[in-house]
Amino acid sequence: MFRAKVLGSFSAAHRLRGYRGDCERLHGHNYRVEVSVSSADLDSMGIVMDFRDLKGQLKAILDGLDHHYLNDLEPFAQDNPSAENIARYIYHAFEGAVKPPAALGEVTVWENDSCCVTYSR
After folding, report:
1. Is 111 annotated in the active site?
2. Burial classification of residue 86, based on how many CB atoms lie within 10 Å of its CB (0-12 exposed, 13-18 middle, 19 or more buried)
3. H or E element: which one contains 92?
4. Candidate list 84, 106, 111, 116, residue with the active-site label
5. Catalytic one of 23, 68, 92, 116
6. Tens of pLDDT along 51-84?
7. Distance of CA 14 to the CA centre of its chain
8. CATH of domain 2-120
9. I want to staple 14 with a disulfide (CB 3.0 to 4.6 A). Which of 41, 51, 70, 76 is the partner?
10. Is the Cβ–Cβ distance between 3 and 37 less than 8 Å?
11. Measured between alpha carbons, how far is 24 from 20 in angstroms, rounded to an integer?
12. What is the mean pLDDT of residues 91-115?
């Protein structure tokens, strides 16, 4: 099995509604996002998926989050913009960009250098 990964980043503010502690107050993160795509087979060029396509799709998704107050965005109107929900949102936004035989593997969202969440199906 081959796994290709790309990294991206964005900066945004949020607050966790109902959280009892510091994260309930408005604060921000410089998020790092890792997306992996896997396949047992390579295409005719010998690759899982073109890195340029992977990076372009990730950038398009992250541009919609970058320098925003995440609580104001529709995907997080009901669900808290936690790292978990952000990872799930990015995963589902990325799904249509991956064509067989490749498959979307997982999305990892880092809030800082020591805390991350991974979402996959």
Report:
1. yes
2. buried
3. helix 83-94
4. 111
5. 23
6. 999 999 999 999 999 999 999 999 999 999 999 9
7. 16
8. 3.30.479.10
9. 70
10. yes
11. 6
12. 96
Distance (Å) of CA 29 to CA 54, 65, 93: 23, 12, 21
**Catalytic: which of 24, 67, 95, 115?**
67
- What are the structure tokens assigned to 33, written together? 């996002």
Quote the CA–CA distance of 73 and 104 in Å, as a whole number.
24
SS3 call for 83: helix
The residue whose two tokens read 């796994």 is 3
Instruction: Answer yes or no: pTM beyond 0.85.
Output: yes
- Neighbour-count burial of 46, counting CB atoms closer than 10 A to its CB (0-12 exposed, 13-18 middle, 19+ buried): exposed
